[in-house]
Design goal:
Layout (H helix, E strand, L loop, with lengths): L12 E5 L18 E10 L10 E4 L5 E3 L5 E7 L6 E5 L6 E4 L8 E5 L17 H10 L1 H4 L5 E13 L2 E14 L9 E9 L9 E5 L4 H4 L19 E11 L2 E10 L6 E9 L5 E9 L3 H8 E3 L4 E17 L2 E17 L6 E16 L17 H4 L21 H14 L1
Parallel strand pairs: 1-17, 2-8
Antiparallel strand pairs: 1-12, 2-5, 3-4, 3-6, 6-7, 9-10, 9-20, 10-11, 13-14, 14-15, 15-16, 16-18, 18-19, 19-20
Pfam family, one: CarbopepD_reg_2
Protein name: Carboxypeptidase-like regulatory domain-containing protein
InterPro entries: CarboxyPept-like_regulatory
Length: 423
């Protein structure tokens, strides 16, 4: 029987028709690197030179971090007062590297990581033979493996909506995540620090796809904070589990467990869990929602759509990565990707929209005091591109770590500006 409905399992995506307006496209943002130095580069596979998307860069003995984009590129901003620090670069299944900050001062920084070639199947630390029992233990020990303090996290959020290959909307924000203890049932909250966006796209004579929830969507896939969103610790009988080849990250050996929901009457989950072999902590999860049942999937995701259209998701993917500090794990990075098809009656071709939202923790601190809610706290029904004003405090962005865009936000603005001016 399906577990209780999760926030991310039933995100509300609104599709509707906007009539042409005449807003001015916002000018590009500027950066102020007054007290910070920005280091850029790329992380690649040493064997085939392929970029490594989602590689993790962290400043040792500090909580500053960032991740690479789909092209393996990164932007890491470090306070100038931190001159003699080392940066650790890691990626699942690869040998990590620790590099001095001076390494990043050269031009065209390229960091090559080597795959871990150790035969892991023979490692004696892998003692579990029943994958379902391993998952059950993973859920049972979350109170001892994850943060049990209130934590305030600084995080970078990006939401990108594309029609085909063209950007329709780009929103970015620096937020504060007020993270509740992992052994608590209290909900996490998010407060806005600053936000920006590329343009008001209402003049694009098309369907405007909008995502409700903003940064709450990637945050909600924190399976160890919200395990019943998919799994029920007391009853895992609705899933088929199997072992895949084990792997490692840094010096940690990981079980890899495939899972697949058995009840396929409704949209159903399948994917992989990466579980630490020593502590049985979930380190990473990559999973999908099968949406072959179009009507059920439409009911699940689409709240509103224009008449004369059929709208349905064709791809729904989720990724969650945890980070470790002082023997405890915490939410590090969440990514949701959804692709929709819009079919118009009496039109030969359909339109495809892709929605990406990602949330990366770039710094954090334990904060045992209860926080007071104010006007900066975001509603769980927020629409970032409509409800959040863009390009506020332009100099602010120079000192905050962000995920390096696959295409610069300035370039995206220019393309949308050209499209608007030519219409």
């Amino acid at each position: 029987m399906r577990n209780s409905v999760s926030l991310f399992a039933r995100p509300i995506v609104i599709l509707f028709l906007f009539f042409a307006l005449s807003p001015e496209v916002m000018s590009a943002f500027q950066q102020n690197l007054q007290d910070y130095t920005e280091y850029k580069g790329q992380v690649i596979n040493s064997q085939n030179q392929d970029p490594l998307a989602g590689a993790y860069l962290s400043v040792q003995n500090n909580n500053i971090s960032t991740v690479t984009n789909n092209d393996g590129e990164f932007s890491l901003k470090i306070p100038k007062r931190l001159e003699n620090v080392n940066v650790q670069v890691s990626f699942l299944g690869f040998q990590s590297r620790v590099l001095p900050l001076q390494f990043f001062q050269q031009d065209d920084v390229v960091i090559e990581l080597r795959e871990s070639l150790e035969e892991l199947n023979e490692v004696s630390i892998f003692t579990y033979t029943d994958p379902a029992a391993l998952v059950q233990n993973m859920l049972k020990t979350r109170g001892s493996n994850y943060f049990t303090d209130r934590t305030t996290m600084t995080a970078f959020y990006r939401e990108a909506i594309k029609r085909g290959r063209k950007n329709v909307s780009l929103s970015e924000a620096v937020v504060k995540i007020h993270k509740q203890p992992y052994d608590s049932n209290s909900e996490d909250d998010i407060a806005l620090v600053k936000a920006r966006k590329t343009a008001d796209y209402t003049r694009l004579d098309t369907v405007a796809l909008k995502l409700r929830g903003g940064p709450y969507n990637p945050l909600s896939i924190d399976l160890m904070k919200n395990p019943t969103h998919i799994f029920n610790e007391r009853d895992l009988s609705n899933f088929k589990f199997s072992f895949d080849d084990p792997t490692k990250i840094d010096d940690q050996y990981l079980y890899v467990v495939n899972f697949e929901e058995l009840d396929k009457g409704m949209p159903w989950y399948y994917g992989k869990l990466f579980i630490d072999a020593n502590t049985f902590s979930l380190v990473k999860a990559s999973f999908n929602l099968n949406v072959d049942n179009r009507q059920a999937a439409t009911d699940l995701f689409v709240q509103k759509k224009p008449g004369g259209t059929k709208v349905y998701p064709v791809e729904v993917n989720y990724d969650i990565t945890y980070r470790q500090k002082d023997g405890r794990w915490y939410f590090g990075y969440g990514h949701t990707q959804l692709e929709f098809v819009v079919n118009w009656k009496r039109k030969l071709f359909n339109s495809r929209y892709k929605v990406n939202s990602e949330l990366a923790v770039t710094n954090w601190e334990v904060n045992p005091e209860k926080f007071k809610r104010d006007d900066n706290f975001l509603s769980r029904r927020v629409i970032m591109n409509d409800d959040i004003s863009g390009f506020a405090d332009l100099s602010f962005w120079g000192e905050n770590n962000i995920i390096e865009p696959d295409e610069s936000i300035e370039s995206a603005i220019d393309k949308i500006r050209d499209k608007l001016e030519n219409n």
